[in-house]
Batch of 2 targets.
Target 1
Amino acid sequence: MTALGGPAPAFALPDTDGNIHEPGGAPATVVVFTCNHCPYALAWHGRIVAVARDYREQGVRVLAVNPNDAERYPRDSLEAMRARVERGEFEGVPYLRDESQDVARAYGAKTTPDVFVLDAAGVLRYRGAPDGDHDDPAQNAALLRSALDAVLDGRDPDPGETPPVGCSIKWRT
Amino acid sequence: MEVAPLPWPEGMRVELLFWSGCPSHPAALADLRQAMAEQKLDPGTIVLREIQTQAQAELEHFVGSPTIRIDGVDVQSPGGEPPGLTCRIYRRRDGRISPTPDPADLRDALRAEPISIVERSV
């Protein structure tokens, strides 16, 4: 499991078109575990895409990873992921499939969403919720934005960790 | 003068079905209690039922947590969602997606139910 201040696990995962994406190569990378069927993930989704848009000029990358067992939860199938991408819901955010669930396990992801911020060296600098209330769009992913501002500034995010809030990741049984 | 909560008409039942793997049912229960109190109904009559297995979910037509039924009628149509152990997706009146029903929908459902009882008795 990834510890704050330690190296985040490397990975290479396909997006909905089969293109492979890896974290890194950016001053900061956001890895957000998310899915199609969870109301918390959906409620926060627009705010996370807005972060990708607002920090693009600063070189920040945002990678969305769906690790859920699609056999038990068909709404999280690759086809359903692709449909959302084709509807334009992931503008600027590759939507990656973690079929084996190995990446979610390596990160110690608990919920959808669960947000991890890596610095340029691939060190984990923030982990937790995008902001303090899924039900309040005005919060605008403030925790995530604050963490990114700190990392881009060479500071430690404060807080560095918050409890992730959302639906449990649907592990294979 | 203090007004005592009205009892439910005989046979009426307010149920909140939940799955513990989803964290939204405490907020939904608080909203439901509030809506009942506003209607001068007794929140103490809410029946909480935990759904623990997929088989139970299928038996109960439970499409996600939380599910609130007033006299057996879901406060928001489950549509074509399949039964399952998952968090339920609700849409608020302003279009936002939420893990809990819009409190206004709860209030409307509670107000509507006695009317439906009268209609059924005609």
Note: Chain B has one domain: 14-121.
Target 2
Amino acid sequence: MAAVIKESKTDRIFLLFTYLFLAIALLCVLYPLVYIVSASISSPTYVNSGEMWLLPKGITFEGYQRVFENQAIWRGYANTILYTVVGTLVNLLVTIPAAYALSRSDFVGRGFFMGMFLVTMFFGGGLIPTYLLVKELGLINSMWALILPGAASVWNIIVARTFFQSTIPKELQEAAHIDGCTNLRLFWKIVIPLSSPIIAVMALFYGVGHWNSYFNALVYLNDEAKYPLQMVLRQILVLQEMNSSGIGTATSGETAMAMNARADVAALLKYAVIIISTLPIIAIYPFLQRYFVQGVMIGSVKG
Amino acid sequence: MPKPMADTVQIDGVSNSSARSSRHSLRKRISRNWELYLLIAPAFLYFLIFHYGPMYGIQIAFKNFMPARGITESPWVGFDHFIRFFNSYYFWDLIRNTLTISLYQLIVGFPLPILLALAFNEIKNGWFKRTVQTVTYAPHFISVVVMAGIIVTFLSPSTGIIINIIEWLGFTAPNFLTDPAWFKTMYVLSGVWQSTGWGTIIYLAALSAVDPQLHEAAIMDGASRWRRIIHINIPTIIPTITILLILNVGSILGVGFEKILLLQNPLNMSSSDVIDTFVYRTGLLNVQYSFSTAVGLFNSVINAILLIAVNQIARKTSENSLW
């Protein structure tokens, strides 16, 4: 290893500014996150007046209490868990086998299939024709309307295909063929066990996608009981706020103070609900960040 | 000595035997790998039904679609819907909003991940680097609904923390949520906050391909960090930048409308309505299927043209392009 070369003065200053830049970026991103956590357990009066601006003040768990008492949130949570599990399973069943087939250089027509998939990345039917199709298939207001239209993403197929191409040695497959192993057995007994990393990455990508999605539910679901968590959140976080301009009007019998108290707790509830709904993702994120990043890197290098 | 496998030696799926036997072995190659077709069948069916299927339905943009009659039986009206759209009083507003938001997003949001990635690349791997990366990646995983909720809560008049900070600094805070003048800024800046960290990954991957010997040689020659970044790092990632830029411009009319849909309200509509939200509203809420499909088709076609145009420019001026 070469002797350490003393950094020149300009270089040291430059490095200092780089660290400064990164520190600012860190704070900019970190501050809102910390604030939300603190606000969810702080007294609404302090939060709304701005007295609480970083660390919790007037600790109260009433926000979380309200969240736990809210039936719609629980129903939404249960629905989302169902949609995510089933949806991710469907995603894997469609994506992984296709990616493997496309990775095989002796697969006649792989160019055709790949081309067919790629075109859809740049051109599509559009919102209305897709909606009409889903309606035609009788899927409106069913879980399948949330799962089937997004059963696979071309990007993910490409990432998985790259993985297969670089990880499963051709010699292995040819040896299996010589031994009389059929393609399906090869896939099932050899390829799948070897591909647990990519299955994990795909499950994560698709899973997070399902967990966070709301638009398909907005379009295709009419029954509030079937709403996923994000739809419930939309009602609490976004729609409710738009009505805040109506808070000036008093309902009969309610004092201004009672109304303000109600509004205050409503605000507190929002922070708590943000935390609760993002909790699963927060929980797995630190551990699985590496896999996510790897997945993107594989895809980007090839793509 | 393994027996000669003339018909199984494959290079890129092309057998190296003679023409007649290659036709022969074409059928053989297909039938021998029939199970692979089984494996790709679900994906094939999926794309066929849910991506190419709706393409058949696009024709209603040229028809007066009546659900009772179905697509085939509905009467043709040619370009009537398009003409109606082009002549409408809101046409230019929609185009202006869509383009402005896209360009704003591009100018502010495109360079930042690059700068951040270059910065990450300069510091050694340690707890600081890992912390900053972990933290800046995190907002990417927040759902768009929660993001909108955060925006709405933070900017809420008199109670939002950002409002409080602004007033503490002595200014009067505008009503960000309802003032049309602030919508685009609010939309773009929150998007930057959410996606910059995650966006560095692709550039970091590209930067990892930089030859360390180039840097060593440059150091020997006395080049400062700054110069090394400009002359070594940046040229290495120019291909990546070009590709991403092309993709970005190609989707310029398809602004992230899910978030806009959540943040738009009657008060800021003049600044927040974009083509996609218009399509959603006219098509699904006002049930004007044909008309909104026409608008959507217009959008897709412009996107495709832009994509091809920018790709051609990139191809002519550099060696990097999407195809």
Note: The beta strands of chain B are 10-11, 14-15.
